[in-house]
Design goal:
InterPro entries: Aminotrans_II_pyridoxalP_BS, Aminotransferase_I/II_large, HisP_aminotrans, HistidinolP_aminotransfase, PyrdxlP-dep_Trfase, PyrdxlP-dep_Trfase_major, PyrdxlP-dep_Trfase_small. With 347 residues, the chain is α/β, with parallel strands linked by helices. 35% of the residues lie in helices and 15% in strands. Helix 5 links the parallel strand 3 and strand 4. The model has no long low-confidence stretch (mean pLDDT 96). Bound molecules: 4'-deoxy-4'-aminopyridoxal-5'-phosphate (PMP).
């Protein structure tokens, strides 16, 4: 910190991303990437785009990608917003859609970027504890609020809310925006995109980082009523009007168009998750039911920090979670069967 820093930045408490090691020999099960490669069609589209056009700015509206998303979900392009990773889309939603008169509500535990955005934008918030099964209770959100946000499935628990619960919430919460962060929805849940035509205050955010194996390309999107999308476009055009580069637009669109590859890889991850869950249970771990590409587990006798440290010594990285509310959980990204075996051998 120096005298050159603004008072604003002195007070910022930034998000700390998970470790991204330079060594590739590690079994990397710490930041919920997909262990399988992206669609070959996405890679081919990126290759084809590497041409003289890189001199020129990309389409500021990313129309090609919006069309791919809209046609996949059977919606209109003016219901789609795209951004540089869903973290950026979330940031624009925090700035553009949450009201300040009442606090924003989100569960605890949940994605730790939410309080960071609140700090950045000066948004008041209240957290609501999960129940004993680590599940979100939507009825708890029945109180004055400036907005509601939660991931579905929740992170880092992996626990899923059924669509009926989300619809119940939307029925009693009509005066503020409800954001459902569906980063992991393709691994076992039903998307709330089916509800956007009926609930003008619903915004659903997804990413291509997980089920479409494109974390390195940084593409996320939101789906909602055109009025909500317009607010996000206003924020975007006041911040970075070209958030997606040419490679990201064509690569992400092609990934969306390759349904076969998407289905194959997501089924492989789901199968691998079920096997890993059973193997960990057989070794005495308590594993929460997960609808995501990671599992949240604890061992009744072994300290989670120690397990994580010992695994690290053996070249396997998992994430140890420690917050005011929980201490003993590991979050383990589902890998290929070979990676999962390496984890089990190390355990
Ligand atoms: N939401 C949740 C719940 C996440 O876990 C993540 C990944 N850290 C994101 C959003 C952001 O993903 P990305 O920016 O790669 O789209």
């Amino acid at each position: 910190m120096s005298k050159f820093w603004s008072p604003f930045v002195k007070d910022l408490v930034p998000y700390v991303p998970g470790e991204q090691p330079k060594m590739t020999r590690l079994v990397k099960l710490n930041t919920n990437e997909n262990p399988y490669p992206p669609s070959p069609k996405a890679l081919a589209a990126i290759q084809a785009e590497l041409n003289d056009l890189l001199r020129l700015y990309p389409d500021p509206n990313s129309d090609r990608l919006k069309q791919a998303v809209a046609s996949y979900y059977g919606i209109q392009t003016n219901q789609v917003f795209v951004g540089n990773g869903s973290d950026e889309v979330l940031g624009h939603a925090f700035l553009g859609l949450f009201q300040q008169a009442e606090p924003l509500l989100f569960p605890d535990i949940t994605y730790s970027f939410y309080p960071v955005y609140c700090g950045l934008y000066g948004i008041r918030f209240e957290t609501l504890a999960l129940d004993e099964q680590f599940q979100i209770q939507v009825e708890d959100f029945k109180r004055p609020n400036g907005g509601i946000i939660f991931p579905n499935p929740n992170a880092p628990t992996g626990r899923l809310l059924p669509l009926e619960a989300i619809e119940r919430l939307l029925q009693f919460n009509t005066e503020s925006v409800v954001v459902v962060d569906e980063a992991y929805i393709d691994f076992g849940g039903q998307t709330a995109i089916a509800l956007v035509d009926r609930y003008p205050n619903l915004l659903v955010i997804q990413t291509l980082s997980k089920s479409r194996s494109l974390a390195g390309l940084r593409v996320g999107f939101a789906v909602g009523n055109p009025d909500l999308i317009e607010a996000l476009e206003r924020v975007k055009n006041s911040f970075n009007s070209y958030p997606l580069d040419r490679l990201a637009i064509v690569g992400a669109a092609a990934a969306f168009e390759d349904r076969e590859h998407f289905e194959q890889t997501r089924q492989a991850v789901i199968q691998s998750r079920e096997l890993l869950t059973a193997e960990l249970q057989a070794r005495g771990f308590e594993v929460l039911p997960s609808a995501a590409n990671f599992i949240f587990a604890r061992h009744p006798q072994q300290d989670a920090a120690q397990i994580a440290a010992k695994l690290r010594e053996q070249g396997v990285i998992v994430r140890h979670f420690k917050t005011a509310r929980i201490e003993q959980f590991l979050r383990i990204t589902v890998g290929t069967p070979e990676q999962n075996q390496a984890l089990l051998d190390a355990l």
